[in-house]
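ok so heres the complex, two chains, lmk if somethin looks off
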Amino acid sequence: MDREIEELLPFYALDALTDEEKALVEAYLSEHPEARREVEQMGGAVSALPYGLPQVEPSPRTRAALMARVAVEQRANSTAQNQLSRRAGRRENLIRVFSFGFAAVAIIWAVFLNLQLLRLRSEISALNTAVAAQSNALKAINAKLAQPTPPSVITVSLKGTDVRPQAHGELIGDPASQSAVLVIAGLSQLEAGKTYQVWLIDTAGPKSAGFLVVDANGQGVLILSAESAIGSFKSLGISIEPSGGSSKPTGKIVVLSDL
Amino acid sequence: MKDAIDIPVRIKSENGLSRFTENTSIKELSDETLAAQVARGDSSALEALYDRYAATVLGISLKVIGDRALAEEILQETFWRVWKSAATFQPQRGSFTGWLFRIARNLAVDTYRRSNVRPQAINSTKDSDSFLDQVPDTEADVPEQAQSVIRHRQVRHALSTLPREQQQVIEMAYFYGMTRHEIAEATGEALGTIHTRARLGLQKLREELGRQEFEG
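and the predicted structre for the whole thing:
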């Protein structure tokens, strides 16, 4: 038993303690049931004290003012409640409208997707047919490619002249054909206004077979075409000509080889 | 006499709450039942409690403040707080009147401290006559009025058995809201003496009320 705190108990019952004292007593009461009983008994006597006072009949205005205040608050609460209900109702309506709208959009979208699906299936079917046809064609091409290279296709080595001795290349083609592939390396890129012109030469003289463009590495490829079979020409030459070419070689000849 | 408000008759249910059937006066309901109805927003229950205790609450505030207009304001504010806070009242922690009078007393003491109005003594000349000699109320409920008179006489008798010094300490603490140090300083007595007077005064008051079978 804490004597100092026990002395505070009557004042706790009389509600006449400071906040700090009250906290001390409440902590004490929570651990001392006998003290709590004593406080409850004293509290009973304290709550009787107002009955010892003369009762004073209040003014009717006080009662009217109180009940008016209560009525105002009840009306305010009722109004607030109604507003809440109305808002909830409006929200429900909005949700309903939105739900219907959403459902309609979803149905339209589903129909659209189904149509798209049908269209895509149709396209896939057509593409499958085309792929099958292409596949057959490819098989036929592969079958042909699988055959040994015809003996008529020849490769002729080409050499540079003294003007460009490092130049070299090959002419690949069927002598009976009027076209062949020319591959050249070791040439330098020409200044502006100049071009390499390829000549096929037979007994009647040189005939232009096209213009060769050389890259920065000095290499160039040309599918040349001739007026007659490649095999009918005796030799191939490349000369440096003005842009646009010449009817006969006029510049330096950088490549010249027999076919 | 005011017409009784007809509400359902009270029937104790399994969960301890009350429900009602018609034709029972609201005035027959207990304080705790009325407080529960107030907590549910029943203003007629608040009116019933007001009619039952307004005179006592006004007595408290007038005792502390000594100013009728201020005391009436405190009365209104006390019952407004009952209206707003009835849900916080817990019957298991004490009686409704204990809760109600504490609200009134604290409001009055706070007002007293702010305004520094001097309270009246319990045994002042204004207090010496019977409550029935005060302002008559032709609309008051007769049984309740009679019960109030009995309580008043019981408490006054019990108080009269206390030595004047013990009455004084109890009054200063309860109605003035003075701390024990303030009482010791105001009376010029030692703190230990104030402690003893408060304890003995409350013990004696409790014993006397018990002897008279006082029902608060």
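quick notes: The helical segments of chain B are 31-39, 43-65, 68-85, 96-115, 142-160, 164-174, 180-187, 191-211. thats all i got rn
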